Amino acid sequence: QVQLVESGGGLVQAGGSLRLSCAASGRTFYGYFMNWFRQAPGKEREFVAAKGWSGSSTYYSDSVKGRFTISRDYAKNTVYLQMNSLKPEDTAVYYCAAGLVVHGNMTYWGKGTLVTVSS
Hints:
about 120 residues, mainly beta, 4-stranded antiparallel β-sheet, globular
C-alpha cells in the first residue's frame, strides 16, 4: 500500500521558517516526480514545488521561488519542503503528491498538513 505522510506543519509568525516532511512508502518512486501542492481556505489547490525522485532538477511556483526549497533523502525515503521568509498568504494545507509529471495529474496523494502564518 502506497503511503505519503506529511508532517511538520504548524503555526509560525511571518518571516519565520518551517520544514515539511513527506515520508513515502509502499513502492519505489524511481521515475516519479515528488510534488508539493497547497490549498488555502476558499481557494483552489495550487502547485508549489517539485523534484524528480532520481534527478536533480527542481521546479517552483513564482510565488515561492527563492523562499522555499524542495529536497529528498534517499535513505529515509522522505521529501522535504524547507519554507523560509513565510508570509500570511502562505497559510494553507500543504499536500505531498507523486506523479509521472510535474504540476499535472498526480498518482498518489498525502492527506496534508496545515501551515498557518500569523502576521
